[in-house]
Amino acid sequence: MNHARISEALRALVFEPDPDVPLHEVLDRYYAPDYTHRSDGRTMERAEFTQLVARFRTQVTAGTVTVLDELRDGCAYAERHVFRITLSDGSAQHREIAVFGTLAEDGRFRHLSETGFDTAPDETR
Question: How far apart are the C-alpha atoms of 29 and 31, rounded to whole Å?
């Protein structure tokens, strides 16, 4: 792997998971062992992030991600995307997310900070 991409991680973890691959193996593919995740001002260690992803997997029945911008410079990573998900209760969410972070030496995510906002269903940027 050259470097992790958040869109590929989202697809493998939540939107298009392979039921034959355990969650920890998919996480290991994209996230370094010392990974931290910051979302809207709250930081999670990898164990708590793993629990969050496991919960999302039970709630999301369908989803897509569209990358609007993506940049890597050395170990610095930035990306902006729109996702659309359908939840198990039938509701839908459309959000635009901005992600900034660092990559570990092996190309996996070491830290990501994200923030976002709701968008209209037909809004793409």
Answer: 6
Tokens standing for residue 47:
């164990």
* pLDDT tens profile 54-110: 999 999 999 999 999 999 999 999 999 999 999 999 999 999 999 999 999 999 999
Exposed, middle or buried by CB within 10 Å (0-12, 13-18, 19+), for 13? buried
Tokens 């930035």 locate to 78
- What is the dihedral angle through the alpha carbons of 54, 55, 59, 62, rounded to the nearest 10 degrees? -30
| CA angle at 39 for the pair 108 and 72, rounded to the nearest 5° | 35
Cβ atoms of 97 and 116 closer than 8 Å? yes
